[in-house]
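Q: Joint fold for the lines below.
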Amino acid sequence: MELRARETLVPVLLVGLLVVAVGLLAFHDVEQRVPIAAGVLWLALAFAAAVGMARAFGAEKDRGTLDVLLGLPVDRGHVYFGKVAAAFLLLLVVALVTAVTYVVVSGEGVSGNLLALAALLALGSLGLAATSVMLSLLATQARARDALLPVLLLPLLIPLLLAGTHGTEDVLSNAPFAQWRGELFLLIGYDVAFLAASWMLFDAAVGE
Amino acid sequence: MRGTWIATLAIALVLVDILLSLLVAPEAANFRAPLTQRIFYYHVPSAWVAYLAFGVTALASGLLLWRRDHRWDAWALASAEVGTVFSVIALLTGLVWSRQEFIGYSPFRDAKVVSLVVVILSYFAYLTLRANLEDGDQRARISAVYGLLAFLGVPLSYLASRASLHPDFTRPDESLEAALGWFLLASTLVFTVLYAALMHARLRIARLEAALES
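A: Joint structure:
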């Protein structure tokens, strides 16, 4: 579905790297390394989602393929989950590239549980994909659609970004699991809640 | 004129409420800033109305999609507009009070502040979305979907915030003097009537607009 990959992947990756670059330039002499790293990483992901998903349905609409896609003899929920899967993979690539770039360029030693960090970033990417795909479908039907997506996305992303940054801070500073367990469960709850709600509301969002 | 009784009632009650909260309510002796404490009588009711209005918008959105009845759209919009005003009032009065009462208070560590900010951003996003949609069924449908999704974000953002310095008067160690509590309750009821009056007026405007167009 998202095989016109270059069209989406390149700009989205560049946005992620841009946030990393600005973060490194602005905070390179700040003492508190861990919160800065966590903040920059999650900002990069959020911006990538806001920029990348603006076209998730926009391109389909422009080419007239949206009607074809929704007219397919499959459950429309599958269309939603297909889009989310593509967006999820895209954001995982962004998370990996930005995290590796940050570590390499900042020259910081990596400490902390990398598996736990990967789990937090994956859960966050899934939540970002779930909300941004759904809101892209809403924004596509409005005027000023590309500019509208970040406005619609921001309020819904705040819980995800709070849990993500707090959890990442704890993981990077080797805090015990008990301290960031709440954040992990919150990310899982967020993903389940928004996937379920979007799936139920998808027909209403498409219309007719 | 039909329907003005509730507006008259609301104005009268608000005037009484101002007198009660500023002159009659006893001074909160155990507070650092007893005078500023009186902002409670506006802060707490405004926050209550902000959440109530958000709930009404979500409820109207749900009914619209479930019943496929687009008359609920006017309810969702009216409640969002009224709620926007009260949520901003709640945030500003809260910040004023915390400056006077607490030392070293950071609003961004306060779960109630964070979820109220999410409410305000959601209201703005909802109204911006509506402004970018054409009139009619499509606008009602799409904004209803957003109204419901945004409603999910509020409890989640409350849970996602860490340690809160916000006073919680339901805990016995922080309980408010009983007399102050009664004034607070009275003020909350007054603000609820004010919300109803504003909704009544806004729905009437929506009806007149619809009549003009048809």
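Q: Anything notable?
A: Chain B touches chain A at residues 65, 114, 117-118, 121-122, 124-125, 128-129, 132-133, 138, 141-142, 144-146, 148-150, 152-153, 156-157, 159-162 (CB under 8 Å). Chain B has one domain: 2-213.
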